[in-house]
Predict the structure.
Amino acid sequence: MHQPLSLKYRPKDLASLVGQEPIKIALTNAVTSAKIAPAYLFTGPRGTGKTSTARILAKSLNCLNSSVPTANPCQKCASCKAIDAGNSLDVSEIDAASHNGVENARELIERSNFAPVISRYRIFVLDECHQLSSSAQNALLKCIEEPPSHVVFILCTTEAHKVLPTISSRCQTFNFKALSMEAIVEQLSRVAVQESIAITEEANKLIARYSEGGLRDALQLLSQLSLMGEEITPERVVEVSGGIRSHDLATIVKAICAGDVLTVLQSARTLIDSGKTPKLILSSLLAVYRDLLIVKSVPKSENVVVGTLNYSQLRQVANALEFSSIDAALMQLQKSESQLRVTTNGATWLEVCLLNLIHNNQEQHNRNGNGKAGELSSVWSQVIEATKPANRTLLSRAKLISFNESNCVLAVPTSDVKKFQSNIALVERIVSRVLGYPVTIAIEQRKELSA
Ligand SMILES: Nc1ncnc2c1ncn2[C@@H]1O[C@H](COP(=O)(O)OP(=O)(O)OP(=O)(O)O)[C@@H](O)[C@H]1O
Ligand SMILES: [Mg+2]
Ligand SMILES: [Zn+2]
């Protein structure tokens, strides 16, 4: 039978639960010291191990091969097996979303009065417990506070803030964390090896990025990709997950750096026309700039980037950018992301955001770019080369200190200031020709340049 990987690889004991270290420790201690709370609340994002841990805890409490609760349930007894199979008479998993009424709560309270059939505890796992109506939550209150001694409640939710505080304050709470990129990549590789699925490291990373800390989503995507029966590459991952190809992202980011408004707007338009949402485009760009910031600030960052573009693409773009402009772009993107959430005209906001990115980048470039010594001297040598030999000696005594779209500043030895001033039109013409656009030149006199 074909079983989805996300179910096949449900952790059966605490040792195979990925991440969530504090929870493992706390639960092990609780079970071994027999300090069993009447109610537990498991909170955290989708697919991070709440339901799995609820089952593990249930096995720990009810394992028949131990006379007391155990941190190492045998996995073989009738109780352990039934819990894994989801048909234990003493462990009820209730989907609170579809049993959210006060009558459901009353029925549950009634059931809790019966002694367990084969094991120590009668355990109620209430999945998505935030979906219980307030009246249902209120009805359960008393029972959760002081349940019969053989009853344990395990409430699970992705939205802790929707659980009434009167309930959550009566539960021992465990906060499940979104899993780290590394943890997900590691688990994906492990599963891929066991299942003989061929997948590249980059593709693994990309899946991990798309799944945003949830292992279920990651394994489901891997499952889906493995059905194609060929090696899984980043391109495949992007196709199947509906993401944006790295080539398209690279085009946009490079065009932003180059100040190429037309390409930026056209690429964005093409993506939108092909069904990508402005939100997806923005969040993909956000991931690229995040990677750029890392590449810019960490020397050997190959394993830290989340793999939006490949490493050499990132390096190339990062080299051309200042740290401060990457940082500014990230701020801009974050701001726009929250604006996108409240607007109905996403495409327009996206364009505004992209134009801002270009603008910021150019401003930053002018501010710092003015000062890049290497670039300045190379521009100046081009100017000298482009001029007639007769003028070269004079020009080579000056230094280009800064330039932008319309102005240049030249440092000139005191003795030559007059000569430069009387030939300023000529110098402007030469420089404009080399730069490819008209500039005005200002002269600064520098004593230290005098021979
Ligand atoms: N911490 C984890 N360690 C190992 N596998 C995990 C972990 N979290 C999730 N998984 C994988 O994802 C699947 C779903 O996990 P689980 O049902 O425990 O998530 P959940 O937190 O209850 O999610 P939801 O909030 O959507 O109900 C598991 O069968 C397993 O394959
Ligand atoms: Mg669950
Ligand atoms: Zn057992």
About this structure: The chain has a mean pLDDT of 88. Strands lie at 39-43, 91-95, 122-127, 151-157, 172-175, 399-403, 407-413, 440-446.
